[in-house]
Design goal:
By secondary structure, the chain is mostly beta strands. It is built from no helices and ten strands.
């Protein structure tokens, strides 16, 4: 079993200046979304992440169980840098017959990220908070083309 300390990744942000041009939609004059090239698909290993700045926004891209998930790097609690927090399995507190918790266990099926500011936890696949259900991470859109990952904003 993995300890939460074994899956710690140092904090860093990559600043991206290279993005596809924003084009104007010929039908109604609206601007289309910008796409920021992040990296190749194989650069983010399972259990890994990459935090990138796309214009004025920071996005965290995580690979969990082989799938990519992208979240805005802003905790809904106090706007802390959630994507730069510690990644670890969901903590489960088994309650005994007397209603007491004697130990902590980890559910390896659900990976969480904890905000480095106040410790709020969120599921990396769903963005749901481990506590109050009204708090969630804000998903960012990804596009994969020719083995390259793009953030679409």
């Amino acid at each position: 079993m993995t300890s939460p300390l074994d899956v710690f990744v140092p904090h860093y942000t990559i600043y991206l200046n290279d993005f596809n041009n924003i084009e104007t939609n010929a039908k109604d004059g609206r601007k289309t979304l910008a796409e920021y090239l992040v990296c190749s698909e194989d650069e983010i290993a399972d259990g890994g992440r990459k935090v990138v700045a796309c214009g004025e926004r920071e996005i965290g891209i995580f690979r969990v169980k082989g799938a990519l998930h992208a979240w805005h790097n802003m905790c809904p609690h106090r706007q802390g840098p959630i994507c730069q927090g510690r990644i670890y399995p969901e903590v489960v507190e088994p309650v005994d017959d007397k209603g007491e918790v004697r130990t902590l266990q980890y559910n390896e099926e659900n990976m969480h990220v904890a905000c480095p500011w106040h410790g709020w936890e969120f599921n990396l696949e769903t963005g749901r908070n481990a506590g109050p259900a009204k708090y969630r991470l804000h998903r960012a859109e990804l596009a994969i083309r020719e083995g390259q990952i793009y953030v679409v904003l």
